[in-house]
Request: fold
Amino acid sequence: MDDDLTALGAVIEQDRGSLPFALIHGEALVTCAAWALGEAGVTPVDLGTEWAGIVDSEEPFVLHDSLCPMTPADFIASCVRLAVERDRVVVGVLPGQDGAEAVASPVVLPASVVRASEEPPAADFEALVTWLRRDFEVVTVPAPATARRVRSVADVVELEGLTRPTRA
Reply:
């Protein structure tokens, strides 16, 4: 992310069972997601952080789903830049069934949306985006295939194969 652009963010693992702690490339999914958030230049906040403090920061807020652990850091950073430039909510999406878009990760709230929100965003990304669309403009951005959401250990194995580093 640009040196002059800052954002706060959190990796969401609540209400996802034990799957965020499954291993991919030898690391927990939640750990990989946290690394991507940090590499994108987003300052992580603990989920116990008071929402008022996040609002007072006057910064965008990034939600990254632990079940989208291999979302590239540069994609997260580009979503933050777009949210700030357009002052719109930005959501990473993948093709879903019947041509619909499936919410992936991240969901970026620009500072104006953070200010307008009286409580922290919901952990259910689909419900969150539905709620956001009622009151705010939402821009969807096609996410890379590696940003896919895993729903089972079999999905983790498939994603691991897709993201296996190539050896020179």
User: Anything to note?
Assistant: Residues 8-161 form a domain with the Spore Coat Polysaccharide Biosynthesis Protein SpsA; Chain A fold (CATH 3.90.550.10). The chain has one domain: 8-161. Residues 73-86 form the longest helix (14 residues).
